[in-house]
Amino acid sequence: MIPLLIWFLVVFFFYFRQRNSLFEYLSYLIQSHGSLSLWHAYSLKALGALGLAVWIAWSTVKCGGYLLSRLIADSSMTRIERLVFSAGLGFGFISLLIFVLGVLHLWYVAVFWCLLIVLTAAFLPGTLRDVDLRRLKPALSGESFRGWSAIAVVLLIVTGLIFLIGGLTPEVFYDSHHYHLAVPNLYLIEHRIYDQPRLALSSFVMSVQMFWGFALAVGNEITAKLLHVSSALLLILTFAAFEKRYFARRAGLLGALIFLSMPLVGTSITSAGIDVVWTALQFLAALALCRALEDVHDDITLNRWLCLAGILTGLAASAKYTGLPAIPVACLLIIWRKRSFRQVAVFLIPASLMIFPYLARNVVFHQNPLYPVGAANWPIIAKDAGSGSFAAHFASLDSFLHFALHPWLMTMSATVGNMDFVGPLLLALLPVLLLRRQHSQEFGLLARYALGLWIAWLLTTSVPRFGMPFFAIAALLAAHAVLNADSRSLARSAVLWLCMAGVVSNLYFTLLYNTSSESWRVLAGQVSERDYLADARPTYPAPSYEAFEWMNRNLPPGARIMLAGDSRSYYTRLPVVVSSTYDTQAIVDVARKAHNGADMARLLRGQGITHLFINFGEAVRTESYGLFPLDAQSWAVIDDFWHRYLRLVWVSYRPDPANLKGLFVFELLPDSSEPSSPPPPNPLERWKPK
Question: What residue spans define the domains of the chain?
Answer without folding.
Answer: 2-34+52-127+147-516, 541-687
